[in-house]
Amino acid sequence: MKILVTGKNGQVGFELCRALSVLGEVVAIDQADCDLGDADAIRALVRRVAPDVIVNPAAYTAVDKAEAERDTAFAVNARAPGILGEEAARLGALVVHYSTDYVFDGAKDGSYTEDDRPGPQSVYGSTKYAGEQALAAVNPRHLILRTSWVVGAHGGNFAKTMLRLAGEREQLSVVADQFGAPTSAALLADLTAHLVRQHVREGADGFPYGTYHVTAAGETSWCEYARFVLAEAQAAGKPLKAGPDAVAPLSTAQYPTPAKRPANSRLDTGRFRDTFGLRLPSWQEGVRQVLQQIF
Q1: In sequence order, what are the beta bridge partners of 248?
Q2: Where are the alpha helices (DSSP H) in 208-248?
Q3: Which class for 22: exposed (0-12), middle (13-18), buried (19 or more C-beta within 10 A)?
Q4: Cα–Cα distances in Å, from 165 out to 61, 178, 226?
Q5: Which residue, among 158, 159, 164, 167, has the nearest Cα to 240 in the 3D structure?
Q6: Known catalytic residue at 212
Q7: Which residues contact 278 (CB under 8 A, 6 or more apart)?
């Protein structure tokens, strides 16, 4: 089996190269190998590799910058998944694509299910939702995995930023009225490998394709997440100027950004767990493992 992985240097792409390597030949690419904003380059890549599976974690993820670079975000997040889907359909290949909590407006009281109507509030969210639609329209053999607050030992993320700032400052202020589930890149990669293995075992007929919410279990705010990270760092003996007690809560209104963030990023993972019979560990468990690697 040949597996094409995009975004090999990103948080999820890096872990996918590890997790998928036991299933077959992994052909991993990054922006230097193929510009996902270039439709012709994407088609040429897929036709050259001729994969059995395409796994696409690559995305334009600069959420605030996307407000000013709409065309670039659209090309990578919205158009590219559709082109990958078209080329995969020609080959009869499975496409695994990752999406985001930002497809929702964040106004719901409870956790979002796959049946809830998307209402993205930012260019990033809008282009990611358009990418979901583009893929689903051209290739029925797809898995769209919506996730949130990705954290990994490789690449940049919120946890690493908090560790850096806590080493530089004696006081931190972090938004406390946005809620979600930090989800480790390694978990997403391992789950993806399980799904690809099941697809190979069961074949296309009857495989439960579609859109699923996949996050770690539980929920927290950005502020409490920051405090957890710094408490773990303290317990590991890392020198910090700001410990968990030095993290002050901020409201979203007190920390304006170019792109609007969803206040509620909680995703209901019941459909995924019931369909595939998998347990999703707590966000604390995943973040602790990532921090152990970083330390």
Answers
A1: 173
A2: 222-235
A3: exposed
A4: 21, 20, 11
A5: 167
A6: no
A7: 191, 194, 272
Task: Note the pLDDT tens digit of each residue in 28-73.
Answer: 999 999 999 999 999 999 999 999 999 999 999 999 999 999 999 9
Chain length of the chain:
295
Kindly state the tokens that stand for 27.
């052909």
Fold observed for domain 2-157+182-218+264-282: Rossmann fold (3.40.50)
Angle of helix 222-235 relative to helix 158-168, nearest 10 degrees? 60
| Helix/strand/coil for 27 | strand
Q: Note the pTM of the prediction, 2 decimals.
A: 0.95
Residue reference for tokens 């985001």? 100
Set 60, 102, 124, 129: catalytic member = 124
Decide: residue 39, CB within 10 A, 0-12 exposed, 13-18 middle, 19+ buried.
middle
The radius of gyration of the chain's CA atoms, rounded to the nearest angstrom, is: 19
Type and span of the H or E element at 199: helix 185-202
pLDDT tens track for 211-232: 999 999 999 999 999 999 999 9
